[in-house]
Amino acid sequence: MNRFVTKIRRFAPAAAGGALVLASQAHAAAVDVSAVTADIAAQAAPIAAIGAAVLVLVVGVKAFKWVRAAMS
C-alpha cells in the first residue's frame, strides 16, 4: 500500500498537468445544431399522431372489453 501511495504522489502532478493541457483545448468553436433541432421539431407532429392513434386503440380495446363484460 505504501508503494502505491508513493507512485500516486510521484505521477499525480504529471497527470494533473496533462489534464489541464487537454482541458484547455476543449473550448473549440461551437457546433451548429440548428439543423438538428429544426429536424427534431419537425418530427413532433407525426409522433403526436402516432401517439394519439395508439391511445385511441388502447381506449377502444378497454371500452370493448368493458361493454362485453357488462353484457354477460
Structure explained in plain terms:
Helices cover about 85% and strands about 0% of the residues. It has three helices and no strands. It has helices at about 1-25, 35-40, 45-70. It is elongated and about 80 Å long. The termini are far apart.
Alpha-carbon distance between the two ends: 76 Å
Number of helices: 3
Series of secondary-structure elements, N-terminal to C-terminal: HHH
Low-confidence segments, given as residue ranges, are none
List the main descriptive attributes of the protein structure presented here:
single chain; 72 residues; mainly alpha; 83% helix
Please describe the topology of this protein.
Layout: H1 2-24, H2 34-42, H3 44-71
Summarize the structure.
By secondary structure, the protein is an all-alpha fold.
